[in-house]
Write a structure and sequence with these properties.
Distance between the termini of chain A: 36 Å
Largest sheet of chain A: 7 strands, mixed
Structural class of chain B: mainly beta
Distance between the termini of chain B: 40 Å
Radius of gyration of chain A: 13 Å
Number of helices of chain B: 0
Order of helices and strands of chain B: EEEEEEEEEEE
Oligomer: heterodimer
Radius of gyration of chain B: 14 Å
Number of strands of chain B: 11
Order of helices and strands of chain A: EEEEEEEEEE
Number of helices of chain A: 0
Chain lengths: 107, 121
C-alpha cells in the first residue's frame, strides 16, 4: 500500500505570502493519478488539482502543482484570506489513499 | 447542476444498524463511480470504497472490507453506505464523492455535504 506523507503538518503564513506544501509517496506514483483537495472547517473537501498539475474547474491560477515519482508540491502563489484551510493530497486509481493533510493557518 | 446530496445526521447506539444515502443529480448516475470517505473527528480523510452504479461493481479498502456495505439503487440515483452493527469507533463524518469522467482513474470531482454519524450509548 502506498503511503502519502504531507509536510509540514502546519504552515503559518500571512496573506499575500507564498505557500509551498509537500506530498511524498512511499513508492513512485504516476503523476496522472495525484490530486490535491482543499477543506475548510465544516465543509466537504473540494478538488483543486488533478493529474498533479491540472486545475479543476473554477480553481484560480494562484494554485499550481508540480512533481513526479515520489515528490509532489502544491504551491499557492499569494495567499488570499479564503485560502487558509487544510490541504490533502490523494493518489487515485487502483487503491486510493490520502495524505494526512497540511493546515495552512494565518500567522 | 451536478450535485450529491447526503442524508442527515444520525445518532445511534452501539450494536444498531444504519444505512446512509447519497443522491446524485444533474448527471448520468449510472455512468460514474461513487466513493465513500470517512473523516473521524479532527482527523484526515480515509478512502473506504467505491461502487459503479451501472453494474454494481464494488471495491473496498482492506481497512473497511467486511465492516461496511456499499450499494446503489439506480432507480432513484442513490448510493448507500451501511453498517450491520455500529461501534463507537464508527463515529465520524462520512462523505460520498464522485469520480470524474475518467472513472476510477480520475479524482473525486464532486462531493456530498457529508453525513455525521454519532455512535454512543
Amino acid at each position: 500500500e502506498i503511503v502519502l506523507t504531507q509536510s509540514p503538518g502546519t504552515l503559518s503564513l500571512s496573506p499575500g505570502e507564498r505557500a509551498t506544501l509537500s506530498c511524498r509517496a512511499s513508492q513512485s506514483v504516476s503523476s496522472s493519478y495525484l490530486a490535491w483537495y482543499q477543506q475548510k472547517p465544516g465543509q466537504a473537501p473540494r478538488l483543486l488539482l488533478y493529474a498533479a498539475s491540472s486545475r479543476a474547474t473554477g480553481i484560480p491560477d494562484r494554485f499550481s502543482g508540480s512533481g513526479s515519482g515520489t515528490d509532489f508540491t502544491l504551491t499557492i502563489s499569494r495567499l488570499e484570506p479564503e485560502d487558509f484551510a487544510v490541504y490533502y493530497c490523494q493518489r487515485y486509481g487502483g487503491s486510493p489513499t490520502f495524505g494526512g493533510g497540511t493546515k495552512v493557518e494565518i500567522k | 447542476e451536478v450535485q450529491l446530496v447526503q442524508s442527515g445526521a444520525e445518532m445511534k447506539k452501539p450494536g444498531e444498524s444504519l444505512k446512509i444515502s447519497c443522491k446524485g443529480s444533474g448527471y448520468s448516475f449510472t455512468s460514474y463511480w461513487i466513493g465513500w470517505v470517512r473523516q473521524m473527528p479532527g482527523k484526515g480523510l480515509e478512502w473506504m470504497g467505491i461502487i459503479y452504479p451501472g453494474d454494481s461493481d464494488t471495491r473496498y479498502s482492506p481497512s473497511f472490507q467486511g465492516q461496511v456495505t456499499i450499494s446503489a439503487d439506480t432507480s432513484i440515483s442513490t448510493a448507500y453506505l451501511q453498517w450491520s452493527s455500529l461501534r463507537a469507533s464508527d463515529t465520524a463524518m462520512y462523505y460520498c464523492a464522485r469520480h470524474g469522467y475518467g472513472g476510477i482513474s480520475d479524482a473525486f470531482d464532486i462531493w456530498g455535504q457529508g453525513t455525521m454519524v454519532t455512535v454512543s450509548s
